[in-house]
Amino acid sequence: MIALLRYQAAILLRSHRWIFPLILYGLLVAVSDEGAVPLAGGLDWSAAMLVPAVALLTRSMVTAEPAAARAVVAAACGPARAQVAALATALGAGVVLGLGGACFELLASQRPPGHALATTLGGGLAVAVVCLLVGSAAGAVCNFPVLRHPGVTLLSTVTAVVIALVAGISPAAAALKHTGTGLAAGAGPHWPGLVPSAAAACLLASTWAVSALAAARRG
């Protein structure tokens, strides 16, 4: 599996398909900051923007490998394992984005004094993890090999991202609204809560399983 992950990471880097999600995430995080946003609110915003960024990263990752190379890898280690490795690589790239966004907010936003800084940062990172998992789940279930037509996959990915950010049943939306103030939250520390965190983990596991089974069936 380590070799598969290294192979998929090399594909992502050499294909340059990470550039657009990186630019999109950077712009979304940067344009929202006006220098007067409390750290908690800034971290919530950067976490929310992980949903579209990671969904696009996942979409890019599962379609980056040429068909001939995909067939060889599937024959060597199994299509399901290859698909999980691709999804895990995109998730890892999303972790890098999330850490970068958190560092930016830490430098650009208004930081609370004293020990409240660590609590606020910890809560913001916990929300980011939930959004990261939801974004990966959206990208996994709305793209190849579950869906194959390029237009359908793009439209379904955008729809899933919107639902993930605004629908009350979404773990990401629930985590972002845990204080009742949503993305416009104030300066206090924010934590996603146990239910949204568990729901995000279950959603990720189920969508990855669907994607891996689709790869095995069509591989």
Structure commentary:
With 219 residues, this protein is mostly helical. The chain has one domain. Helix content is 75%, strand content 0%. It contains ten helices and no strands. Helix 3 (39-48) runs antiparallel to helix 6, helix 4 (50-62) runs parallel beside helix 7 and helix 4 (50-62) runs antiparallel to helix 8. The longest helix has 30 residues, at 79-108. The chain is elongated, with a radius of gyration of 18 Å. Residues 179-187 have low confidence and may be disordered.
Structure classification: mainly alpha
Helix content bin:
over 70%
Q: What fraction of residues sit in β-strands?
A: under 5%
Number of helices: 10
Average pLDDT figure: 91
**How many extended strands?**
0
Poorly predicted parts = 179-187
Largest sheet: none
Quick one: overall form? elongated
Number of domains: 1
Radius of gyration: 18 Å
The sequence of SSEs as H and E is: HHHHHHHHHH
Ends distance: 18 Å
Brief digest:
The chain is mainly alpha-helical.
